[in-house]
Amino acid sequence: MRSALLLLADGRLPSGGHAHSGGVEAAVVDGRITDLGSLEAFLVARLRTVGLTEAAVAAATTHRAGEHLAELDAEADARTVAEPLRAASRRLGRQLARVAGRCWPHPVFVALPDDAHQPVVLGACGIATGLVVEEVADLAVHHALTTPAQAAVRLLGLDPFAVAALVADLAPVAAGVAAVAVASAEGPIEDLPAPSGPRFEIAAVEHAGRDARLFAT
């Protein structure tokens, strides 16, 4: 279980996350992120919207132990408003299911809906590896925080030590988001958190229409 947790948290896992900036590239282009301070504001906002939504869906999937997968995927779809983000989530889900199925063969990966969203697949990984709901929520929040943080280093040339320290400083915020996700996991699927970030969604659509970009999202 411990090795599975470490592997799933590793950014080098070939599940495609390195190709995504979590909205940072769009925010750099339109001037919302220019330095460490504005990156911090972006990360906090993303944790409390996208991060919470994804962690809640992933935790709820693990909690249900392979049941209601289609319903969970439909709820993930409804909570992902922008079409480019829906497509990216499904693409990341396919890639994660592929690598996880090789690492931990389990019937839950066969039972997944076609092109399941990434948080649903992450929850399935929790089932396959014996992770508990809290660990799955922490994983989802970890990815929601570190993916854009590392993209900011590449896009703006920020000091990687300073960005790592920023991520560490945001641990209490991340823990709070994960706790809310875990608390919602046992409730009705339709009541899972769905905080919105309209600026993230608008920027995702604009980003998808740009000819020159380094990241898919």
Can you tell me about this structure?
There is one protein chain. The chain starts with a helix and ends in a 9-residue tail after the last helix. It is 69% helix and 0% strand. The longest helix has 28 residues. The model has no long low-confidence stretch (mean pLDDT 95). It has a single domain, classed as Urease accessory protein UreF (Orthogonal Bundle). Helix 3 runs antiparallel to helix 4 and helix 8 runs antiparallel to helix 10. It has 217 residues and is mostly helical. The protein is built from eleven helices and no strands.
Describe this protein with a few key phrases.
11 helices; mainly alpha; Urease accessory protein UreF; 217 residues
The outline comes out as globular
CATH class division: Mainly Alpha
| Measured distance between first and last alpha carbons | 31 Å
Radius of gyration: 16 Å
Give the uncertain stretches in residue-range form: none
Number of helices: 11
Look at the helices and sheets and give the structural class.
Answer: mainly alpha
In brief:
With 217 residues, the protein is an all-alpha fold. The chain has helices at 2-9, 24-29, 36-63, 69-78, 83-103, 107-111, 118-129, 133-156, 160-169, 171-185, 198-208.
